[in-house]
Amino acid sequence: MPESETQNIHLMSDILASQVAAGEVVERPASVVKELVENSIDAGARSVRVELRRGGVSLIKVTDDGCGMSKADAALCLQRHATSKLVQVEDLFAIRQLGFRGEALPSIASVSHLTLTTRRAADVEGWRVSAEGGVEAPLMNAGCAPGTEICVSNLFFNTPVRRKFLKSDETEAGHVEHQVRLHALAFPEVRFTYVRDGQQVFDVVATHDLRQRIADFVGRETAASLMRIRPTEAPGVRVSGYLMPISAARRNRRMQYVFLNGRPVEDQIINRAVRDGYGGFPPGLHPALFLYLEVEPALVDVNVHPAKREVRFRRPAEITMAVMDAVAATLAAHARGEEMEVPQPEPVAEFSAAPIKQPLPRPSAPVPRPEPRPTLVLKPLVTPRQQELELPPAPVPVSTAAEPEPQPAPLPNFRHIGTLHNQYAIFENKEGMVLLSPRAARERIIFERLQESNRRPLVSQRLLVPELLELDTRDMGIALEVKPQLEQAGFQLSPFGRNTLRVEAVPAILPLRKVADFVQELLRVFTSGEVRLTRARSPFEPFARQLARQYAQQEDVAPYLLNPLPLLATLLECEIPYCSPGGKSTLLPFPMAELNRRFQNS
User: Fold this and answer.
1) Angstrom distance (rounded) from CA 522 to CA 265
2) Within a 10 A sphere around the Cβ of 227, how many other Cβ atoms?
3) How far is CA 592 from CA 429, 452, 589, in A?
4) Which among 80, 74, 81 is positioned nearest to 130, based on CA atoms?
5) What is the average per-residue pLDDT within 109-125?
6) Taking Cα atoms as reference points, which of 324, 387, 300, 31 lies closest to residue 183?
7) Pick from 220, 269, 214: which is nearest to 293 by CA?
């Protein structure tokens, strides 16, 4: 190479390479918990305890009673590419463990303070290894119980930009709880304990009865309605699990759990096969189910996604047919009123993760069942018509009384001349013709009225029967995060149990038909990341924009098309009357000069 040429290619340092790998493995505290719990299950643990502090940023501790490590293994476990699960290339095509790539521990250690304490049952003493930002300390002996304990503290302390992307402690803790629940549903034969900020959230005992484990999380009453999937087998494939009735369908996939060889997965092929097995499904809804697939490892590639959430099948048509047949046969049997035979306790997955060096021990004594948990029963929805008949004529203000709504000024210059395709109102004025979109207009009006809550409280309308919303742990975290915005908009709600919200009042300007569905969809949008609560003039603005958009979409615009002049007058009093908050046109003018030019009239 000539001396004048510079060298641009170089080798990354081990710490930098580990932090790059951490970007794939460690997205948030929940991904740390996922990797550590998977290691515990691979180590043959029969009990796993997860402790969390401040959403996982301050502390994540995972303790198991698995096989533990020897001194030599402990000395290597934080080295990049160190693994006990792959020996040769062929092992990649017969993976029976949850983790296998040897990237998790060094990647986590590179962005945190990590301490690992481990001991094998046959050894007299254990060993402790620690690292700070990827810099490993000398190995030390330690007294500890058989198994492994890993403490991860001060997560992302040396990558502050990544820490800024984390949500509130409530939201991050909700994602961690969801991750632990997934593992608990995938491996009912393992006891799982989850402790958050010193308080025990749940402790589910080990069992071979899958219905019992599901009941631990969804309640006994919901579990009683489960339809056991008729086991369906194809070459290298077995389908089992439970379906929930169509009445339990959701507007999102929060109650759709799919496990492949003990691994929670998200796969479009399986999703389509489920819907096809139902013979179609109502648009906008998703069936609720607990689906367990056991697939010969050689027929599936679990290494196509950094977090291993997505998979690739070698023979997808056979997977599709097996899932479709299982769902269709179960629904057909249920429709005929056939009783499903209650199975004897059996392992959940034949190909589930195996331990590192020893087979999983099976308990000889019966596993005790947990105490039944009370189930909240949702009250019937209050329709607007019921509110008209049963509530006082005037709204009952929850906050300070608001001033009467000003009446819009008359519009002598506009004349309503018709309706276009039952979607748009047509007006004539001295300049020409104007089209009005009632839906976009209502969105703009509601948005600006909500924005007025910065100056004066909005009037709320109490519900005769408060609504109880049973939420996913992630949705609950979002709900508590946006609770101030909900209350500013005129909702009044309070926690009612761990994952339940009690809605007591709604905005008087929004006569909602289905309060529970409306609030759950609102939370779904923010949980999915479709709308961000940042990068706005105020925290309330994106909330008000989504609230107005969602309400305008579900509102019946027919009355506004019959008499659109009051709507137009109210719209023209808005600060920005010519577009919705999302940028859609509310009014489209067609001046006579432009029409004459188009028709070539002089």
Assistant:
1) 25
2) 17
3) 10, 37, 10
4) 74
5) 94
6) 31
7) 269
101-110, 419-428, 559-568: segment of lowest average pLDDT:
101-110
Rounded (5°) CA angle 591-594-599: 125
The structure tokens 């290494």 sit at: 303
Burial of 498 (0-12, 13-18, 19+ CB in 10 A): exposed
Whole-angstrom distance, CA of residue 297 vs CA of residue 125 = 37
Of the candidates 552, 453, 469, the one whose C-alpha atom is nearest the C-alpha of residue 511 is 552
Structure tokens at 510: 């929004």
Instruction: Give the span between the Cα atoms of 117 and 214, in whole angstroms.
Output: 32
**Per-residue pLDDT band at 89 (split at 50, 70, 90):** very low
Identify the structural domains of the chain with CATH numbers, from first to last. 14-206 (3.30.565.10), 218-301+309-335 (3.30.230.10), 384-592 (3.30.1370.100)
Is 17's pLDDT higher than 70? no
Q: What is the pLDDT of residue 370?
A: 37
Q: Are 16 and 135 in contact (CB under 8 A)?
A: no
Question: Tokens at residue 517, please?
Answer: 């569905």
Is the whole model's pTM more than 0.90, yes or no? no
State both tokens at 225: 């309605």
